[in-house]
Amino acid sequence: MKLLKRFIDKDGHGHVVLRAEETEDLWHAYHIIAIGDTVTASSIRKIQKESATGSIDTDRVKVSVSITVAKVDFDPASETMRLSGPVAVENKFIKMGAFHTLDVELNKNFTVEKAEWDPIALDRIATACEPAHHADAAAIVMSEGLAHLCLLTQGMTIVKSKIETAIPRKRKSAISGHEKALHRFFDAVMQAILRHVDFTVVKVLAIASPGFTKDQFLAYLTAEALRQDIRPIIENKGKFILAHSSSGHKHALQEVLRDPTVAAKLEDTQAAGEVRALGEFYQMLKVEPDRAFYGFNHVKLAQERQAVQTLLLTDELFRAADIARRKQYLELVQAVKDGGGEVRLFSSMHPSGEQLQKARIRRILSNVEGRA
Question: pTM higher than 0.70 for the full model?
Answer without folding.
Answer: no
